[in-house]
């Protein structure tokens, strides 16, 4: 093997070059889960250093954070690490957009691309990705095309994930400090080999030799070591291996995620308050080293005798792993009986698994478990929607402490006790609610939820009107012609009577984005309709979903099921020949009333 060098380098140095990706490993394949973990790891590590009042100059004294190795050849061909570097590039593009509203900015352009003769070359230089990255850099969005590759689609989707998952509390004066820390203190080890063959040999050696035991394997080893009988130990080992393999089949790190979620849901009593230099508590230690936490808390867990360790696996571990596996399946495959698990997963609310498992007692029978899954997941759906309608953040770091406290309150309690707690929580502990819908509108924050909300409303009114409808179809972004949010008004202030109704273009644009002025349409029709007047659009809406169709007067002819639905819920649907400012406000109230039906807190009783 020829000469190989390695050097620790920060992002500002590493991405000051341009890299190519070989054709046989070009696909960018990260999913939402990996982006979420990256953002959480980076922001949590940043908060370990940050203190109120710090400036960019203080970053010089911050601790570094190791993001992993990157293996490449001397001619800058990446052999391992393109997933991380591509994701960091997306994050830098997003941060660059975000900082434009500030008086000062950190220069990020040279880390995203280089420019020569008016031509941009992005840091990860793959020709098929250029249009996507350029659009994300210029506009903050990309309109997917029919012939886009898997990498391009994933890049576009992961950028939307970054928009959705980046914490709101990082968007103030901390933003520039975070950017400075990211590019100057996040470290990767750059491993360079003279040839591609040598680079691959390094990759194989690093990934196939001397693998360390994972925390899950160490936890298993500890628990099994405390079981005295050999036959029993072997039986427990087989059970553990079967469950771990089942969880890994669901997702790559399913076993690790389950262990953390289970232990936190059932046993964690404390979590760290504050960030820098504060001591890690149950919640954090379980996340870092669950095997260590169990060993140090064995008496608290009732692990005294050999039989206790046996039951801990054969009863508790087995039962909760089985339930967790079911929850993951409900989250990815729509099941009408457990629809709210799917709805919560569609909004990337990963903490629902902790909350649901917390409610379940080891002694609960199958019927009780299913009722608790339905009850807790429905409450979560109601809680999320109230936060969204009032523009409250749903970022992981912003809601984590609240979720932890709810987790402890509902832990192993009865159905009636949990339902009572939830209804009291909605009535007395939430100072925001569905009345906020009067001013609800589409913006950068609500964009990631608006498709979900309109899909829920559309599927609801169609199902209740006897139409075979599917929420999944409305939110599926992977289908050939996915649904998009359609504005009833074209983005044209000069069109129609807008100049008469609004004092300025800005006022028109704010009203155009209001909740009541939106429906869902297939992407191809959304684009073909976008420049039409409302009068032209409404004629075409008649062939679309019922929410859009209800704007057309023909929808109310020979449609008894729809009329029966309207009467049942006292909903004032009506057609509009034209769509004025007052009509929009009236439609906004209709959407508010529909939302009150769908997210009625009294429906919690339906799960008892």
TrEMBL record:
Domain (GmrSD restriction endonucleases C-terminal): residue spans on this chain: 475-552
**Entry's Pfam families?**
GmrSD_C (PF07510), GmrSD_N (PF03235)
The source organism is Salinicoccus halodurans
Q: Return the protein name.
A: Uncharacterized conserved protein, contains ParB-like and HNH nuclease domains
The GmrSD restriction endonucleases N-terminal domain, residue ranges = 12-223
